[in-house]
């Protein structure tokens, strides 16, 4: 196990280490700039060390806004009544009220109140520059936090977006397979309904997890040490958009199976020669195309890209087989509604193939034939 791994196992993860480095660096720089006890620079560095560089920038801006507002309010209070206990209570009341009326974030309101309090309590009438010292120390600490976050063990989130991609792919495949199987096997409405509700909950959870992509993009944008991952992050970003669309069509397939089950008092299996068997073959071909596309996204390798195109071509061929079988089935007697349900499922599968084709066409801009790109995840 590496040194970083051993430290993480003991609880000294990257953020803990970076926070301690930022605090020490802020203190050292503060003393170099003439402040014998740069406590506020250390506090600003600790508070500003956020999960991403973008969050650190935002937090530094919030600190500065809160400091300036707090300094202005404190100056008014000092001029009116000094720093008696009643003044302190009134000061915090006004700071909190003003922040709430302006609909500031809670972190800004807290910074606003703390700055006003410290300026009122510790300002020496003979030293009118205390408030300004508080501001420049805060700016220094915020800048140190941003710099340390960008240059020391910067976050990358590649593992997290790979996991999100894998979970989306699994949800799409499971829904397509389950929906087609439920329709062909004649599953009862209660069973299909439970499966559909489970899929809806999983889709909502995965939609919330998309914030991982924003963090990965921020890591690439703000840290020079992570810019080599730009191609990988962008490829995963495009894939997540595609898979979200595919998941919508997969939900449509399961919804059709549910409607079919509810319509039939005693659902009958639809499996057999002709269109039903052709639909099962089409579902298998579509799922293989999805799996090959996911393999390409995970590797970025041109060979996987070529295999994904070939799997897509095979799925289109399976679609043609189904259409011929369905056309022959129209000439035979039998209930119409099951055939309509089969056609509706095929329509969703066609949408999946169209989205996959568009995604692979878009990837042609990024794939260099004969030159597989290195995979940072590998």
Distance between the termini: 17 Å
The number of distinct β-strands equals 0
Domains, number: 2
Please tell me how large the radius of gyration is: 30 Å
Helix content: over 70%
Largest sheet: none
Q: Tell the overall outline.
A: elongated
Low-pLDDT ranges: 369-378
* Run of helices and strands: HHHHHHHHHHHHHH
Q: List the total number of helices.
A: 14
Average pLDDT score: 80
The CATH architecture assignment of the largest domain turns out to be: Up-down Bundle
Class derived from helix and strand content: mainly alpha
Subunit arrangement of the protein:
single chain
In percent terms, what proportion of residues is strand?
A: under 5%
CATH-defined topology of the largest domain? Methane Monooxygenase Hydroxylase, Chain G, domain 1
CATH secondary-structure class of the largest domain: Mainly Alpha
Key terms for this structure?
378 residues, mainly alpha, Methane Monooxygenase Hydroxylase, Chain G, domain 1, 14 helices, disordered C terminus
């Amino acid at each position: 196990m590496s040194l970083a791994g051993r430290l993480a196992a003991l609880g000294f993860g990257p953020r803990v280490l970076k926070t301690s480095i930022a605090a020490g660096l802020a203190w050292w720089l503060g003393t170099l700039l003439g402040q014998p006890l740069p406590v506020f620079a250390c506090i600003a560095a600790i508070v500003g060390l956020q999960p991403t560089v973008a969050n650190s920038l935002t937090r530094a801006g919030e600190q500065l806004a809160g400091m300036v507002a707090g300094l202005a309010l404190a100056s008014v209070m000092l001029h009116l009544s000094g720093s008696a206990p009643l003044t302190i209570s009134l000061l915090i009341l006004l700071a909190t009220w003003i922040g709430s009326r302006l609909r500031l974030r809670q972190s800004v309101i807290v910074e606003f109140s703390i700055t006003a309090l410290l300026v009122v309590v510790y300002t020496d009438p003979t030293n009118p520059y205390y408030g300004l010292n508080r501001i420049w120390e805060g700016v220094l600490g915020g800048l140190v936090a941003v710099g340390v976050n960008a240059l020391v063990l910067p976050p990358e989130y590649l593992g997290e977006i790979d996991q999100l991609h894998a979970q989306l792919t699994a949800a799409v495949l499971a829904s397509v397979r389950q929906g087609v199987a439920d329709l062909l096997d004649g599953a009862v409405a209660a069973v299909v309904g439970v499966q559909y509700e489970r899929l809806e909950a999983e889709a909502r959870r995965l939609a919330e997890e998309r914030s991982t992509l924003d963090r990965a993009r921020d890591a690439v944008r703000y840290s020079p040490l992570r810019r080599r991952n730009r191609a990988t992050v962008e490829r995963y970003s495009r894939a997540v958009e595609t898979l979200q669309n595919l998941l919508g069509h997969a939900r449509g397939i399961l919804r059709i199976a549910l409607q079919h089950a509810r319509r039939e008092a005693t659902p009958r299996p639809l499996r057999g020669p002709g269109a039903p068997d052709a639909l099962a073959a089409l579902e298998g071909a579509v799922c293989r195309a999805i799996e090959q596309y996911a393999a390409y996204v995970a590797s970025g390798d041109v060979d996987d890209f070529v295999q994904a195109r070939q799997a897509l071509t095979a799925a289109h061929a399976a679609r043609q087989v189904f259409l011929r079988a369905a056309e022959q089935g129209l000439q035979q007697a039998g209930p119409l509604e099951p055939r309509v349900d089969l056609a509706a499922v095929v329509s969703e599968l066609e949408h999946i193939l169209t989205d996959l084709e568009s995604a692979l066409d878009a990837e042609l801009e990024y794939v260099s034939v004969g030159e597989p790109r290195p995979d940072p995840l590998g």
